[in-house]
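Sync notes, pocket subgroup
Present: LS, DG
LS reminded everyone that the earlier model was apo-only. Rerun requested with pyridoxal-5'-phosphate included. Inputs:
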Amino acid sequence: MNSLSQLPSVDQVLSSSKGKEMALKYGHNLTVEAIRSSLDQARQEHLTEGSAIPDLNGIIKHADGLLSHWFKPSLFPVINATGVIIHTNLGRAPLSEEALQAVSEVGGKYSTLEFDLNSGGRGSRLIHAESLFQQLLGVESALVVNNNASAVLLVLTVLTRGKKVIISRSQLVEIGGGFRIPEVLLHSGTDLVEVGTTNKVHLSDYENAYSKETAAVMRAHSSNYAIVGFTSEPDIQDIAASAHQAGLWFFDDLGSGALLDTSQFGLKHEPMVQESLSAGTDLVCFSGDKLLGGPQAGIILGRKDLIDQLKVHPLARAIRADKMALAALSATLGHFLKGEALEKIPVWQMISASQEEIKKRTLSWRKSLKLGEVIETKSMVGGGSLPGETQPTWVLALDVEHPQQLLAELREGDPAIIARIKDDRVVLDPRTVLPQYDPDFITSFEETWRKFEKRS
Ligand SMILES: *Cc1c(COP(=O)(O)O)cnc(C)c1O
């Protein structure tokens, strides 16, 4: 008897109780496809390698594995034990409970996104965050777009195309993901005028470059690098005043846009939105998901006459913010308005966590896991803010023979844990793990550790 004929049929698998369960969970068609693939593979392996013919259960198991593999999303939560708070690759700022709630409400229901309840007619999505920014910062006008890169592109495309913009050589920055200020200027059709040198720029450098074609002076925050040593740069109020005197306007790409002072937490002072505005900046822009601690967004604040021009440009429509980002942003701004940002916004909870708190958490990790050493080290704010700036922190350090291997296995855990290596040791930093995720962290770590230990 041809042993291939022992293979179950698709119908046999489908009508088994597990087969019915799979069809219910994944849909009939895909389940059939998975069963066919499993049968094909079994046939192939039997013919080419003489492998044994799997029984009904073998085929079910294989097909089920295929289905769960096909349905595994590529985007899912991980535990960030790196200590890098604004980690661009890990999705930057986690949202507050209230912001999440707002996303779920607005995302799952109809909303007033572009509807005016008073008139019963069309409203504007542009108003939602604008009034909050006006209250919070006293700005004339605000515009929220998809991200800060698109905010910069919009400002330059609409307001300085075909004209010159002056910027210091020390600020021709490239942000992660290939966002380069000179290239954005080029794409916007703006003529870039570089002044000063890499380490020093004087007010006279700007002033000597003013010409009839100049539209604006721009500053870009050196978000991800620091020039140290013999450096100088005029104060921004002086740059703004000089630009105004020459009939130009001044645009500040702040990058991170801190609304709270980072220096109260042992960090360097990150330029604040309030400072930029009070220095006389005409337009300031920054990200929603860096130190603001909200969703991905690009925020443009400042003069109404300029922002009005941005609002009606077709590019603004192409890069508009979506309703879930607007909902999350409004909730996040609400925390600043109520003066509860440090308690409610995860990024600020992490920045403001005291060393004693972190040490206590590390000790409790050690107690649960019964391994590692609790040591003092530094965590980085990271991700386009406070370059090279670190905060003292406590971590759990593990001496293992193959630290890279342990990192890789932790990444395969459920949930995946992202850690880092310092001095050949795997270090786990509780600063970026919100306390409510400690149980998940412990479970996932213990599971991985059991397998890791057995193997090594
Ligand atoms: C991060 C950053 C950007 C880009 O912001 P995204 O929100 O990532 O698009 C632009 N300019 C500066 C100075 C930045 O730091």
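DG: Residues 195 and 206 are 6 Å apart (CA to CA).
LS: DSSP finds 19 helices and 17 strands in the chain.
Action: DG to write up.
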